[in-house]
Amino acid sequence: MSSSMESPVLNGMIGQSTAMLDVYRLTRQVAASSATVLLLGETGTGKELIARAVHELSPRASGPFIRVNCGALSDSLLESELFGHVKGAFTSAFENRTGRFEAAHGGTIFLDEINSMSYTLQVKLLRVLQEQEFERVGDTKTVRVDVRIVAATNRDLLDEIDAGRFREDLFYRLNVVPIYLPPLRDRTEDIPALVQFFGKKYALANARTQPRISDDAIQMLKGYAWPGNVRELQNYVERATVLCANGDITPELFPPHVRGQAPMRISRAKPGTLEALCSELVTLGLTQAGPDASNTYEFVVSMIERELILQVLRSCQGVQTKAATRLGINRNTLHKKISDFQLESEAR
Fold it and tell me: I need a labelling partner for 16 at 20 to 30 A (CA). Which of 2, 5, 128, 249 fits?
């Protein structure tokens, strides 16, 4: 393996796990081409960083890199944002406006959360992919552009197709070269380098000496499921860097749920779910009076917690890492609860 392949030089990406080295290699290979790229992965895994690397390593590097979050705008606003509009196209269109596709001419446009785009706009995007042309909102004049498209999603687009929310023909046009970014829980060997990088960054930002990270803290961080991935780790390292008094980052500087000491986040449950029932019973238990109220409360919560863990384990086919992520708890904590509740037969 060449040294260039081993070096994490892709626009600030950190980590040299096998999974990330594969991402770097594939990114370099596809960057030199003009192929459309589809970035797949959970929120916070670094999809925008890879999109920028595809652009910067490509022959289009001197051109613009334009980012659009398709999930942040309504359908009508997104159409105007992407394709522009002419004066009078709608009530607030007081002047002509250039869209993001025109602004990206000669460069790359990054369409984040592509799964959020409406069916109507998907048709227009498909035409841009096929013909490299479109019309501004309210105009009949065709605009031609030379743009490379990099799209990203944190959803399974095949599931979206089955649900009737995403066009199958658009999926195949986007999915020319898919790049999957692994979640942080699947590359825990990168955590020490990430913690060191973020610790240095936030120490400089706060005029502090770069903190030392204890071995206990690293082991604890490796045991957490990281539902928010690298972005979540970054936030917690910033917190720890600001709070550490003696220059050492220790486990106590991280939130209780990262340390496996917080209860499951039942209060976030949606109405009609088992978690919602759990929340209601907790409230009931807290408002009961009498000498046995405390014991009743603890028993009810314990039984519902067991049932919740059992259902999640079954939905995850017994995979504890996946179950811990869905529950929002530390993997080691889940392992202990499985033992306490005698659910070993479900965790295979």
Answer: 249
Task: Give the 3-state secondary structure of residue 2.
Answer: coil
User: According to the model, what pLDDT value does residue 331 have?
Assistant: 81
Identify the residue whose tokens are 């390292």.
237
In angstroms, the CA 318 to CA 197 distance is: 34
Phi, psi of 195 (to 5 degrees): -65, -45
- Residue 74 exposure: Cα atoms within 13 Å on the Cβ side: 2
- How far from chain centre, in Å, is Cα 251? 24
Do residues 180 and 211 touch, judged by C-beta distance below 8 A?
no
* Kind of pairing between the strands at 142-144 and 65-69: unpaired
**CB burial class (10 A; 0-12, 13-18, 19+) of residue 170?**
buried
The pTM of the full predicted model, rounded to 2 decimals, is: 0.73
**SS3 letters across 8-45:** CCCCCCCCCCHHHHHHHHHHHHHHCCCCCEEEECCCCC
Per-residue pLDDT tens digits for 140-167: 888 899 999 999 999 999 999 999 999 9
Q: What tokens appear for 233 in the block?
A: 């780790």
Q: Which residues contact 111 (CB under 8 A, 6 or more apart)?
A: 68, 70, 117, 125, 149, 150, 151, 152
- How is residue 293 written in tokens? 């109220």
